[in-house]
Records
---
Amino acid sequence: GAVVSQHPSRVICKSGTSVKIECRSLDFQATTMFWYRQFPKQSLMLMATSNEGSKATYEQGVEKDKFLINHASLTLSTLTVTSAHPEDSSFYICSARPGAGDSPLHFGNGTRLTVT
Amino acid sequence: GEDVEQSLFLSVREGDSSVINCTYTDSSSTYLYWYKQEPGAGLQLLTYIFSNMDMKQDQRLTVLLNKKDKHLSLRIADTQTGDSAIYFCAETPDRGSTLGRLYFGRGTQLTVWP
């Protein structure tokens, strides 16, 4: 089945540094990928939609200068958390949809970010 | 925005059936999904149902959709300890759209006792 690979799975960084998270579609091309954020014991919230070859679309309340998204190829989207702070600590999950709009979203295994 | 509601906890004994319920508000929902999340892991797609279907069965999983009441349920037959996880209900109002965003419930923590 369709596989979405995400790494790193876990990262600890110091406050003020930047962290890059990669999301790859392994056996399909994805013109669109989605980045979600999950707080402990909470649901998933869509942060942004990553579009290959164009700018990402951010959800209301998500700072685009803080969460930089680059979708440089049909199989790779990256999320960079810039100048990370402890409140950015969270679980970040990417997803992509193989095939047409009727196919379900598949998710990566997520990245646990801890900012100290 | 769209609201998706789930009960937060469910406990069952191994071998029993589990039923996880979900309600949603968006009458234009096209697809409804069930995802499973184990501790520290991402989301695993379990099954999904199109809004013009009433029921879908896949091995131990049965999904029932009552579109009139906007109620979705997931039944797991012969529940095993390995089924212990958080189960998310999600829906999307988009069909054929590149957006395809999902709206999630808060998840139901299923605990299976041996």
Note: The interface with chain A takes residues 4, 31, 33, 35, 40-45, 48, 88, 94-102, 104-107 of chain B (CB under 8 Å).
---
Amino acid sequence: DGGITQSPKYLFRKEGQNVTLSCEQNLNHDAMYWYRQDPGQGLRLIYYSQIVNDFQKGDIAEGYSVSREKKESFPLTVTSAQKNPTAFYLCASSIGNRDQPQHFGDGTRLSIL
Amino acid sequence: GQQLNQSPQSMFIQEGEDVSMNCTSSSIFNTWLWYKQDPGEGPVLLIALYKAGELTSNGRLTAQFGITRKDSFLNISASIPSDVGIYFCAGRASPNSGNTPLVFGKGTRLSVIA
């Protein structure tokens, strides 16, 4: 089945550690996005990539890093510089044409030990 | 970043009732989307709107792209227990292109009492 796969579903991080969240899509979508969701809040954009080997900061990029070496993959690293990393992280992708909606993965819940 | 004003924040309704929620923006949008999120999962697209005045249905759901291009509403008719979840509006401000990230509202949390 075509879709967006996020892994792991649950992730625990110790203080001072970097962790990487995986996002893979087999939809042949050009653009990929990372959002953070906190309880009772909407989705806030962390980073996005419109094409391979290129990405832009979103509204809350500090403490995060990404790479886009392959079209189908857009991993997110939560660095130790992110002081409040506990959240639900959502990856999305969309086709390159204008006005196409984003489709989401099932998310990764990150917690601090 | 830009935000959408989505209301109400939460709703408690009886099964069988109709539901209405809306989203407004201070700027003109060229795309409006409505998503539903179940607990612990990613949002799922319900309806996409691309033209001012457009009215689109998906089963018991109906959404409209406001004529001013600054608002949209979502109606759910004859609610059932599985309608429970968080509904998000999202959109792109004109003249942004299709790969410009969506702006999201904060969501409407719907609870259905059987």
Note: Residues 75 and 105 of chain A are 13 Å apart (CA to CA).
